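Fold it.
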Amino acid sequence: MPITKTALSLCIGVAIALLAGCASQSTTSDPVSDESAQTVDGLVDQRLDQAQALLEDYQVNEAEVVLSGLQFNQLTTAQRTRYAQLRAELALTLGDGNEALNWLSGDRAALFDGLPLEQQKVISLMRAEAYEYSGNYLSAARERIFLAPVLEDDDARFNNEQIWFDLQLVPEESIRDLVAAESSPDLTGWLELALIARDNPDDLRRQVIAIDEWINSHPSHPAAQNIPGDLALLRQLANTQPRNIAVLLPLSGPLEMAGKAIRSGLLAAWYESSLEEGDVPSLTFFDTTKNADAYNTYKQAVFEGADLIIGPLDKTRVQQLQQQTVLSVPVLALNYSDLAGSGPSNFYQFGLAPEDEAKQVAEQAWQQGNRNAMVLAPDSEWGRKVSDTFVRNWETQGGRITSKSLYTQPDQYLNTVRRALNIDQSERRMRTLDSLIERDIIFEPRRREDIDMIFMVAFPSQARQLKPMLNFQYASDIPVMATSHLYDGTRNTSRDQDLNGVSFVEMPWELRENQIKRDVRAAFNEQFAGFESLVALGVDSYRLYPRLPQLQQFPDTRVYGVTGTLRLDARQRIERELTWAQFSNGEVRPGSGLVNVLNPTGITP
């Protein structure tokens, strides 16, 4: 009968255990014990070879079984080195960057110091990949920058592009802080280039000039010799910008205030740009309420000379344009269609989808090491849509949903929280026990213990009730993460004390004061209470349109807007990555809740 791989693993494991036991009982050195030790080493090496073969064949579970049968502390130095590398490869295959770093960094990093250069390059690239999986993009970039001088040809070009990709995901404040403290010319040069990419996002000509000046100042820098592709494209884009932009918005009817809020943000960005560069496109506004057919409005705008369309806003009209076979002029729609597919090649969609936020919370919570999540959301179409997005992304990463509870009326919030935490089951067990024992017992209800974090979907009034209930029901120690909807953008210290400790994602527009925000308040008489986010959408729609070809050709490129960090996905939809914030003493503190970009794991690089 043939021996299976699993059976072979068990046989080797038993043999190793028996031989290790015999070796440990021997107190003197003799030929027999030396021979036994050599046999054990040979069996260990065979097992390491087997694990490596299984990983190369993507048999991850089988490789885990093989490696788990070895005791790291009982291996020779050479075997520990191989074991650590295989453990890291296994973790990377599973997308677990933190686990990979446990084997590649800290005290174990010394294991790889004596390896030949080619093997050290492999380890360094694995370490960079582990940092990327763990969300520590600055450390990943530093690792790749350190490695760059020993790479050649395609490997060097790919590494440069990956450095650029990593730096685009590092918060601007972290880059500026490191520029001031760093002395390495290569790293400093990369950081300065990353800052140029974030300055003047709506003025391509000024950005091209800044890049040229950087190249002249750093002629021998790796990025100067091989400029990232998305930056090289800017020169061409700067010379082919639209001159006449038509904006399709509802400026009357039920969506009038939403349309005017977007118009105000767009005009504010246009005016700011005109002061800085002078040469700006003309803007013509069309009221979409006056024509139910968005394609007719589109054709009218093109007939009048538009070479770019921004809008429409309402979903029905967006879908009308998406269904066209060809669009002669590009369209940046300001909402997301529910239809499948992406539409014509020059049809783009940009909006404020709450699904982006739920996806980001799932990714962040996973990077922080959480694996079991509880979900609280309103029992509505919107609440289910947002929570389902979180659940889908959480489970795709490998996470587990311990409970998902939908709440309704405020008087039912407490029962919903108690059921989600299994408090009601704990109390039923107490009543059952009480009925069986004829004496008083001291009892304190217990919540379920298999929850690492709570995803809460709520508006401010709901969140201010739900979080205290979670605290009261023995869940005050569980991290709570939320979408931007629990914050209305206004300072309310006394009422927001109840939200202390809650981390949430929010657009930069709401978290930081800026000049264009002040300009909107000063220039327009309209009151945009409840529509501030749409003003920000208008600002970013104007700043985004020059970059659309760049985002299309280089999907990893980011545009740093007031609604978030923006990128284009495969369906021609703009995805947003928002800023993290946290409530502390009733105040919103930007930046809280993030993995430490310098060292998220506590491991010394």
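Residues 204 and 236 are 10 Å apart (CA to CA).
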